[in-house]
Inverse folding.
């Protein structure tokens, strides 16, 4: 009987194996970071410029938490976007960019995973995401995009993943003003 078999099984946590697997994940993240060129990436210009600058000049190894979060996002992107993955990337006015997808119909899209509650509305999404998508609108000459958000904990009642999609509309002025802001950040970053 299987019920009796379960009492013979012993579990022993092995921190060394966990550390080894995490080291492999961190090496993958390091390879991703070292592949960057000298031009700043949109994502580097959205967050703390000082941190982005030092990550370029004197990179610190990623913390275990950074590795896990970054790689979880990468792998979710691989799985969730596989059916419509037409990667779009380039260099525009000295800034590197990579949109998650540009489908056959030309629709621009970005995927994010987050622990933010799914109860939040579109107006409550992080401004860095908005600025990132506006940047992609500029480089692809669009004023509409899709943001797909995988809320890893759903609405926390109970905490089950929930996928939401938001259609973002912007004016040409909003797109252009955001790009001017990005250019200013680029100038500061390069000084």
């Amino acid at each position: 009987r299987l019920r009796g078999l379960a009492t013979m099984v012993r579990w022993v946590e092995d921190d060394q194996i966990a550390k080894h697997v995490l080291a492999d994940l961190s090496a993958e993240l390091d390879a991703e970071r070292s592949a960057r060129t000298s031009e700043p990436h949109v994502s580097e210009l959205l967050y703390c410029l000082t941190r982005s600058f030092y990550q370029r000049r004197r990179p610190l190894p990623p913390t275990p938490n950074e590795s896990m979060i970054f790689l979880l996002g990468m792998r979710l992107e691989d799985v969730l976007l596989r059916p419509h993955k037409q990667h779009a990337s380039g260099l525009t006015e000295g800034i590197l960019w990579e949109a998650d997808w540009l489908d056959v119909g030309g629709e621009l899209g970005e995927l994010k995973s987050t622990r933010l509650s799914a109860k939040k509305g579109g107006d409550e999404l992080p401004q860095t995401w908005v600025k990132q998508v506006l940047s992609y609108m500029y480089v692809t000459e669009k004023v509409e995009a899709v943001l797909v958000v995988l809320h890893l904990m759903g609405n926390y009642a109970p905490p089950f993943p929930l996928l939401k999609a938001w259609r973002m509309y912007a004016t040409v002025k909003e797109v252009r003003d955001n790009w001017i802001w990005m250019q200013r950040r680029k100038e500061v970053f390069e000084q």
